[in-house]
Design brief:
This protein is of the alpha/beta class. It has 17 helices and 15 strands. Bound molecules: uridine-5'-diphosphate-xylopyranose. InterPro entries: Glyco_transf_N, UDP_glucos_trans.
């Protein structure tokens, strides 16, 4: 008898690959075989980064790659181009891959789990008559916003090409975070052309989601009950974290610098500011230096993730003499083992761009936030953090669009000087973690889905 065999298809960006890999590892622990499909470019990065720690992946996960439609030198952070290239090339390649597997001797593909943002993969699965699960790596609220696009057009809030007609605050339902219409996910993704492409992709994904037999997301009912009430078809199965299954996280595009964990061991409890902006955020020189000086000014210890591509400067991006001056209190690394960092007792707060993975990782460890959102769903996540859960503070830009050092310093002091933030964060941590334990709602949903998958 053949074993259930899942094909997992992420959207080709780091913040999407990590949580789908986490879900894949959970499936493997329940006896499934998983073929995980990256683009050629991302696959190379993952394999290079994995070389440092081969133990992170189970032998029941087969990493494969398909052409992603972009040349190696083309910019992957331009999301419009990334979407266009992916949708042009990958559907045909995925179809060929599935047919090849199914004609072979091994286990036939029984189910496709595709990132909801890669709706084309659900369309391929439907065409080949394979069962389908849509996985959403971010909040239920942002997916609810996407599902509400027809209503937003009908209400005259946006045009049918996604253009925002009125700048206003809206709330999709009581209890949900308020959103600025100009900060709708697609409306803050690059230039106008990119925004229109992203919007069209979301409209297509809305149709594709209807092909899925389950829609699951990396969130918990306790974190966003209103969103799950508005869109009951979305089922929470999170927070998906390596620590919950007592494993290591995997599928990173950069090698992790784990020396920072030993450095954290030497710091007093609740003393370190952790600063990280996910995988794509980019700083201009002025803002980068302002942040650097703010951390120095704070007179606290800090661990700062400075990705090799975080600024456009090829030479030293730091203020003159900076690295020597902060050597005794600050550590900069290219890529940290973030989930382990956030679980470390010396972390006091998280200065974050509010990507959903970072948000959920910070919450799961009871860490308060300083919020610095850039694009995508990050403004909505900030609103959850500051307005709904009240576990963080927003940073304000000045008239030049810069967050100045004084603002950062004073918000650090305000956040760490008020124990209520930490107390609320600790409470949320308990709530979130309960949901993935036996008896919790995310746990129950996950169990139902795997039972169903076994029958596919
Ligand atoms: C993007 C979007 O920003 C996010 O809002 C969306 O929900 C998913 O795609 P990204 O910007 O990379 O992702 O941010 P985030 O969602 O926070 O994901 C970053 C991931 O990289 C996290 O899992 C984090 O633990 C990991 N990370 C980050 C590291 O492991 N080490 C680091 O040094 C920095």
């Amino acid at each position: 008898m053949s074993n259930p065999h899942i094909i997992a298809v992420p959207f080709p960006a780091q913040g999407h690959v990590i949580p789908l890999m986490e879900l894949s590892q959970c499936l493997v622990n329940h006896g499934f075989r998983v073929t995980f499909v990256n683009t050629d470019y991302n696959h190379k990065q993952v394999v290079n980064a994995l070389a440092a720690d081969e133990s992170q992946l189970s032998d029941r996960i087969c990493l494969v790659s398909l052409p992603g439609g972009l040349e190696p030198w083309e910019a992957r952070h331009e999301v419009g181009k990334l979407c266009e290239a992916t949708e042009r090339v990958m559907p045909g390649k995925l179809e060929e891959l599935i047919e090849k597997i199914n004609q072979g001797e091994g286990d036939k593909v029984t189910c496709v789990i595709a990132d909801e943002c890669s709706g084309w993969a659900l369309e391929v699965a439907e065409k080949l008559n394979i069962r389908r699960v849509a996985f959403y790596p971010a909040s239920a609220a942002i997916l609810t916003l996407q599902f509400s696009i027809p209503k937003l057009i009908h209400q005259g809030i946006i045009n049918d090409d996604g253009t925002v007609l009125r700048s206003q605050m809206i709330q999709l339902a009581p209890g949900m975070p308020t959103m600025k219409t100009t900060e709708f996910l697609w409306a803050c993704m690059g230039d106008l052309t990119a925004q229109k492409i992203v919007f069209q992709v979301m409209v297509r994904n809305n149709k594709a989601a209807k092909l899925a037999e389950w829609i699951v997301c990396n969130s918990a009912y306790e974190l966003e009950p209103a969103a799950f009430t508005v869109a009951p078809e979305i089922l929470p199965i999170g927070p998906l974290l390596a620590s919950s299954r007592l494993g290591n996280s995997a599928c990173y595009f950069w090698p992790q610098d784990s020396t920072c964990l030993q450095w954290l061991d030497q710091q007093p409890p609740c003393s370190v500011i952790y600063v990280a902006f996910g995988s794509t955020t980019f700083f201009d020189q002025t803002q980068f230096q302002e942040l650097a000086l703010a951390l120095e000014l704070s007179q606290r210890s800090f661990l700062w993730v400075v990705r090799p591509d975080i600024t456009d400067k090829t030479s030293d991006p730091y203020p003159e003499g900076y690295q020597d001056r902060v050597a005794s209190c600050g550590l900069m690394v290219g890529w940290a083992p973030q989930q382990k960092v956030l679980a470390h007792p010396s972390i006091a707060c998280f200065l974050s761009h509010c990507g959903w993975n970072s948000t959920i990782e910070g919450l799961s460890n009871g860490v308060p936030f300083l919020c610095w959102p850039y694009c995508s769903d990050q403004f909505l996540n900030e609103s959850y953090i500051c307005d709904v859960w009240k576990v963080g503070l927003k940073l304000k830009k000045n008239e030049n669009g810069i967050i100045p050092q004084g603002e950062i310093k004073s918000k650090v002091e305000q956040l760490l000087g008020d124990e209520n933030f930490k107390a609320r964060a600790s409470k949320l941590k308990e709530m979130g973690m309960t949901s993935v334990k036996e008896g919790g709602q995310s746990h129950r949903n996950f169990k139902n889905i795997i039972e169903w998958m076994k029958t596919c």
